[in-house]
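As a warm-up, study this chain.
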Amino acid sequence: MITAQALAACIFTAAQTYSVPPTVILGVLHVEGGRIGMASPNTNGTYDLGPMQINTIWVPELAKHWRVPEKTALRMVRDDACTNIGVGSWILRKKMNESGSMAGGIAWYHSATPGIGSNYRAKVLRAMQKYRLIRQPADLITASSAQPKKRG
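Now compare it with the structure written out below.
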């Protein structure tokens, strides 16, 4: 069990570390609906782990990066909420970088298949709106697509 204060600290630390808005992390946490210790099987033989439902396809890369056995990496992602939120935020940042936008990153967190990813993004945005983390789904999309002005 993790206290609300500890969970908030984990979310804000991950948000700052990976430059992902904490509101997005909260939206993904809500939609994923995972729990500490949870391992949900997928039809392709993988599992989704912990609060942010991190797919086991990430475990080999994490184990290598952390220099631990894969079993240990899996256990860390599944059973430690802060580790899970950190990894989920790292994945969100990677997907935001790959897609070129926050909206794309949210979609690709779940799937790069256009229809599947956009449906997932809509769920996350609705959750964020429901919990008053954003006013309108367009608020997040507009903010994420704003380009910094070039200096020169």
